[in-house]
Task: inverse folding
């Protein structure tokens, strides 16, 4: 046996394969598609996916994925080609993703709540050659066909495909179930997710097999998912949190994924009880709906061993709700560009470190730096930057944006953060959301977390409001629990006194029936600012 040159090993403990390496190989890390193949051999009769009435074992899932992958190749999809998916949370979405992974194609899941024009932008920008869609979205797709006449194939998931469309199930069943023999490198892109576009045109984030694998390993290290675990995925899978917090790590480990394609609090709670769900990830807007559900006490939730939140800052009231019921709840922080895990707060510290998003996982790291890229001091605010094998390959067809975001191996997140004396991370806000009033910095999240504790506030968002004297002041958009109870600025300011510095107190409030949010639950603050600019023309500051 030849000696292995240890200098050739990667930073992470073993060689994972690349074009330039010509020496001995200690271990070759396989692509994401190999997970299901492996489990089909060792866990053949284990249920992998529950999707409505369907219960699909790992052996059946691998068979279906192989058939789909081989049909993709047969109709002309090759390594590197983009496959667009306008799909709800169904087994077909995950089958399409894994089929692409097995043949080296790139799966591009698209937000099904977007307008036709927004979908068109992603299809054109990604250069998709194949479009897989749910029949419930047929109306959007028929309009899309007029805008992108060069799309090679449309595949319909459902029972009534249009005349020129391929039928997903018939196509799949006609394919060979032989294991594809395509050579996949872990540095190949397998997934492209578009950013939510809250500040401009969305960008395609290129995630490699390595990114998804190492994210799963990081999740394994922190969550310790077990083969008997059952996770429920109802947050849309076009969102990186839904895809990679519990879903792909559970499949990596050989657990079961339960899919719900519509979010309904009662249906979710009933599913947790019936399927004995262990792990559950939701965005904060969903958690708010759950804890405000009037019949939550009617369900047995004792099977839950871990609940998680992400996508946007989680109101402390949600965390406290589950802590009081002794149901483990963690808050994490991540981005599409980091596949997504950046930090996680463990259950042991959730009480004493409320508001923190924890520490970095085993195989990635972060720093907080000033404008000169120097590390800031404890409790000092700076920009969060991230490094690790989970960081994206770059933005699709956007070299300038990639270069701006990636410097010396570090990804610059654009998020303002700080560390406490024990090294716990606190996200302060987005750089673009920070309010500067009279020369003082105000971070909206800090004000929002105080307002969330008000007994009659259900939801809240804080922005900077133009002011002739102070340049900006603080404005709060509030959704109340009881509309019959009057909410006035004086009462809100009185509630915040002693909890916030005087310059951070809201000077303006506006009551809304609901906050504008995108499909991943993030508040669209640019929409609130847009309304403000229209509303306050000719008005002076209110003091």
Result:
């Amino acid at each position: 046996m030849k000696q292995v040159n240890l200098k050739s090993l990667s930073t992470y403990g073993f060689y994972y394969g690349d074009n330039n390496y010509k020496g001995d190989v200690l271990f070759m890390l396989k692509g994401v598609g190999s997970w299901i193949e492996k489990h089909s051999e060792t866990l053949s009769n284990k249920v992998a996916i529950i999707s409505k009435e369907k219960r699909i074992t790992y052996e059946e899932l691998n068979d279906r994925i192989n058939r789909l992958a081989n049909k993709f190749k047969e109709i002309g999809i090759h390594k590197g080609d983009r496959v667009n998916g306008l799909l709800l949370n169904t087994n077909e979405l995950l089958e399409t993703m894994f089929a692409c992974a097995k043949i080296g194609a790139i799966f591009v899941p698209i937000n099904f709540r977007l307008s036709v024009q927004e979908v068109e932008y992603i299809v054109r920008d990604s250069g998709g050659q194949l479009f897989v869609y749910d029949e419930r979205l047929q109306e959007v797709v028929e309009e899309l066909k007029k805008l992108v006449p060069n799309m090679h194939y449309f595949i319909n998931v459902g029972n009534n495909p249009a005349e020129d469309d391929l039928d997903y199930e018939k196509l799949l069943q006609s394919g060979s179930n032989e294991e594809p023999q395509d050579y996949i490198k872990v540095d190949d892109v397998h997934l492209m997710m578009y950013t939510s576009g809250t500040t401009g045109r969305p960008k395609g984030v290129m995630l490699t097999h390595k990114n998804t694998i190492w994210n799963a390993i990081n999740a394994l290290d922190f969550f310790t998912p077990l083969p008997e675990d059952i996770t429920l995925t109802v947050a849309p899978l076009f969102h990186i949190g839904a895809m990679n917090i519990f879903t792909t790590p559970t499949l990596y480990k050989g657990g079961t994924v339960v899919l719900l394609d519509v979010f309904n609090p009662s249906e979710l709670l009933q599913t947790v009880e019936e399927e004995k769900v262990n792990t559950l990830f939701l965005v904060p807007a969903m958690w708010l709906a759950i804890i405000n559900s009037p019949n939550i006490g009617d369900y047995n939730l004792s099977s839950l061993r871990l609940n998680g939140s992400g996508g946007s800052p989680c109101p402390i009231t949600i965390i406290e709700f589950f802590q009081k019921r002794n149901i483990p709840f963690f808050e994490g922080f991540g981005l599409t560009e980091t596949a997504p895990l950046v930090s996680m707060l463990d259950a042991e510290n959730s009480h004493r470190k409320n508001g923190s998003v924890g520490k970095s996982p085993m195989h990635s790291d972060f720093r907080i730096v000033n404008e000169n890229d120097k590390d800031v001091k404890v409790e000092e605010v700076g920009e969060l930057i991230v490094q690790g094998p989970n960081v994206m390959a770059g933005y699709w067809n956007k070299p300038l944006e990639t270069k701006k975001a990636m410097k010396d191996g570090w990804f610059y997140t654009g998020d303002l953060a700080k560390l406490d004396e024990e090294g716990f991370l606190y996200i302060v806000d987005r750089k673009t959301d920070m309010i500067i009033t009279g020369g003082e910095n105000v971070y909206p999240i800090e004000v929002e977390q105080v307002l969330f504790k008000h007994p009659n506030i259900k939801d809240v968002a804080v922005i900077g409001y133009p002011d002739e004297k102070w340049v900006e002041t603080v404005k709060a958009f509030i959704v109340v629990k009881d509309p019959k109870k009057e909410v006035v600025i004086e009462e809100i300011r009185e509630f915040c006194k002693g909890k916030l510095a005087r310059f951070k107190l809201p000077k303006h409030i506006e009551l809304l029936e609901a906050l504008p949010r995108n499909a991943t639950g993030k508040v669209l603050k640019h929409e609130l600012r847009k309304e403000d600019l229209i509303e306050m023309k000719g008005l002076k500051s209110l003091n």
